[in-house]
C-alpha cells in the first residue's frame, strides 16, 4: 500500500501570494507521501487568456512574468523536499524520493499549444519546456493517468462534446466505472461505492488549492473549498481519504 498527496489547481500567477506552496512543501517533508500528483493548471498563464483578450484586464500582462511566477511557485513547493534530501545525503541517510506526477491542464501547456497554433511564427521559440516541470513526470492534457488503479486527469471529457463531463461525481463514476480524481472545477465533490465483488471505487472533483479569490467569480462564487487530498492505504483504486484545507496548512506550517 502507498500514500498519495493530491494537489488540485494552484493557478500560480504574478502578483499573488505564493507562500501557500511553501506550506504544502513543508507538509510533503513532514508526512513524506510516496507519490505526489498535481491535478493540472499549476501555472495560470493569464497573459495567454483568451477570455480576457482585448479587455482592460490584459493591461500589463507579460508571458515572461507568467513563467517567472511559475518558477517561483515551484521553487517554494520543492524547497522543503530538497532541503530534506540535502540533510539526508549529508548524514548518509536513505533519500526520500517521492514519485512526482504533473498532470497538464488547460491553463498551462494547453495555452502554449494554442498560442503556437494561432501564431506559428513562435514555433520553436516558445515551448512547454519553459515550464518548471523538469523534476516531474509530465502527462499530456486530458490523457488519463493510471496510478495504483486510480485514474488521474485534469477533467473527464464528455465523449460527445469533448467538454468536461457534467453532473455529480456519483453519476460520472457510474459512467467511468473506475476510481478517478480530477481537478479543473472549483468544488470538492466526493462519492464512493462498492461493486458487487466488494471493491471500493472513489470519484473526486477537487479543482482549487490556491487561497485567493477570483474577481470574475463574484462573492458567492468564491465560497468554495480549497486544499489538498491525502490518500493513505492506496491499493487497487481504494484508499482512506483525508482532506486538508489550504488555510489550515498555512496556519500550521508558515
Plain-language structure description:
With 254 residues, the protein is α/β, with parallel strands linked by helices. The protein has one domain: Purple Acid Phosphatase, chain A, domain 2 (4-Layer Sandwich). 28% of the residues lie in helices and 23% in strands. It has 6 helices and 11 strands. The chain has helices at residues 19-31, 63-90, 109-118, 169-176, 218-221, 246-253; strands at residues 2-7, 35-38, 99-103, 137-139, 145-147, 150-153, 180-182, 188-194, 200-206, 227-235, 238-245. Strands 4-3-2-1-10-11 form a 6-stranded mixed beta sheet. A 5-stranded mixed beta sheet has the order 5-6-7-9-8, with helices on one face. α1 runs parallel beside α2 (63-90) and α1 (19-31) packs across α6 (246-253). The two termini are 31 Å apart. The relative contact order is 0.19. The model has no long low-confidence stretch (mean pLDDT 89).
